[in-house]
Every structure is written in C-alpha cells, then in structure tokens.
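Hey, I'm writing a tutorial for new members on how sequence and structure tokens pair up, and I'd like a real worked example in the thread rather than a made-up one. If someone can provide the structure for the chain below, I'll link this post from the tutorial.
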Amino acid sequence: MDFWKNKKVLVTGADGFVGSHLTEALLKLKAKVSIYVKNTSSVGHIQCRLNNIPHIKPKLDKILTGDIGDRDTISLVKENNPEIIFHLAASAYVPFSFDHPDEVMKANLMGTLNILEAAKSSKKIKQIVCTSSSEIYGTAKYVPIDELHPLNPSSPYAASKVAADRYCYAYWNTYGIPVAIIRPFNMFGPRHTYDVIPKFIYLALHDKPLTVYGEGEQKRDFLYVDDAVRAFLVMASNKKAIGQAVNFGTEKDYSINYIAKKIIELSGSKSKIIHIKKRTSEVDRLNGSYQKAKKLFGWKPKISFEEGLRRNIEWAKHNPKWNKDIVG
C-alpha cells in the first residue's frame, strides 16, 4: 500500500481486458494514474470512449490518446513523465495477425520501442513492465515451460512479441533502462472478449454450439486475472525484476475439449460441442512454470482454474452487454 501511494504511474492499453483491472487496482492502492489508450482521430485528444473503465475516468490524473506505434507516442509519454510504466498496449488477437502482420508488428514492436525510447531520456523512470506473451515459446518442448525454453513463435503475432521481448532486454543491457519483462500465460476473467473462454461462456449462456478447432486436445495454461494483476504489480515494485523475463503461469494445462465441457457444466447450458478444421499456426501445448516468480518474489497463483471459471460465468450472467465485442 505504501509503495504505490502517490506514485506517478502510466498504463498503456488501460482500457483493455487486463489493463482495466490493473488500472482499477492501482487506483485502489492510491497511485496517481495516467493512462494511454488508442485514438483513431487525433493524437493527444482526450475526449475518448474508455472501454471497460468509463466509471473511473474522474479518478485518473491524465488521459493520453494516440496510436502506440506512432513516434508521437514518445513525446506524449515524456511529457507525462511517469515514475512507473505498465506497457500493455498491443494487438493481441492471434488470428488477426495472419492477414495483418504489418499492423500487428507496428503496434507490438514499434509501440514497445516508443515506450523504451521515451524512458531512455527520462530521469524520473524507476521501473517499466513490458508485457510479453507465452505465445513466444510455441508448442512446449518440455513442461512446465521455464524462461530458458527456446523461443519458437508460430504466428506473426508471436513473432512480434518475441521481437518486443528481446528489444526490452537489449535496452536494459545497452542503456541500463529499468525494464522488467512479464510473460503471462493465457489470462482470463471478466471483461475479456476474445480467446476461447469468453467465447465459450457467451455461447454456453445462450445454449449455442461451442465450436472447437481440430480434435480439441490442444492444451493451455490459464491464469485468472486477479493473479495476473498481482503479477504485474510485483514486477513493477520489486527491483529484482529489472533485467529479468519472468513467466507467470499455473503449471497446469487443460484441453479445449475439457474447457468446453466444464463451461457447459458450470453454466447449466444445453450447448453441444462441434468440431471444425484445425486452425492455422495452432500451438499444441502451453504449460508455464512459475518457479522463477516464486523464487524472486514469493508469487504463486491463488485462484484455481475452476474457481476462475465460476467467477467469470457469474460475472457474464450479470453483465449481458459484454458479449457485443466477442470476436468470432
């Protein structure tokens, strides 16, 4: 509590799924929070629609808007002059990268470079948390996946995240910028609008068929959003994180078939499960070690997968408008 009180913090991608939860948590911890969100009109224009977090707008210190991949971002961030930056802004929907690799690279790599460049010339920056992804590992060669696992990106999205991840390390190594690289595994919870869990919950609550790609035996490690927020906070507040890339997973993985059946069961749905052609560039298995996080910070996941699903389903039942942004 004392660490965050009055800390000047900037969160990019603050109106996204995880960013919105993190921003709320920082405000509760009495941080002085500014946010950077996407704006399709003019850079710096502050009259914008805040997805997920319009209710906290009056509590924010400043709202910066623009395209994270544009060089204008550098001056906006430097002018804001934060002590801590959480960089979550990204183009994160993997299938989108198949047809838009240049757009995804601009957002994910150039956006990260802009944040690093802004930090390089700032004397006030104490710590930067840059968000990587478990997708950088590709299909597990061994489990649980630790930070020494080879980086084998299987999609343009994953490749862009590998590039950003390694640029963060390079800027720490070359310029001494206090960068910490967080590598969360598949995060889920309220407000998420893409990926398998929110899709399945939406379909199950409407008794519609749940579509599974391929045989459905591909497996993922799912981290509930509350645990993810704790991970981000510790990566920004502990000096041991600087210069490190740290996984945050649960060391448990679940098949897509299991997830579909469990969501149908927990939601009391009448949905059926149907299988279609395997998706391009599908990763077969992700299972993340959290041993480095435990050793450095004492962090470990607290919310079980089933408990997370229950919470997510209950939230969805009471927030029927959330489905309008579900990605097909």
